[in-house]
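Reading a protein record of the kind used here takes only a little practice. These numbers are not coordinates but entries in a learned vocabulary of local backbone shapes. Here is one such record, which you should read through line by line.
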Amino acid sequence: MIKHYCDKCKKEIKEEDKFKIEIKTYKGELIKSDIDLCEKCAEELDKFNFPILDTRCFKFEEELDKLKEETGELLEAIEKYRGKKEGLVIVDEVIEESYDVIQVVINILYRLELLEFMPEGLEKHIEKLKRRGWKFTNEI
């Protein structure tokens, strides 16, 4: 008898209980296939998993100011990138500044106790975009 193990937690799982997944890039290119997960680890994939910083020492208004600051830095990095002034270093800068903006937004949503609504909010957002006639370059 062949034994099967979850590729994440290494727990033994029955053939009929395993979840097979593939990992693809946002463009749909296959990174890895034939990944076996137990039910618990498969459910974890659907959870929003982004670090939440402890920002309790800051006033809420300071976080809003931080969002404005980080958004400005992202716009500057994009401007540099589009001008191709400094080559590949700029790619890292755009990505870094993008994550800074995302991090601040996540922290704000967390402080407003709204993070748990993100999955449902994404579904509504996608439906809204479809109603407005937007076409998607990736499968949704």
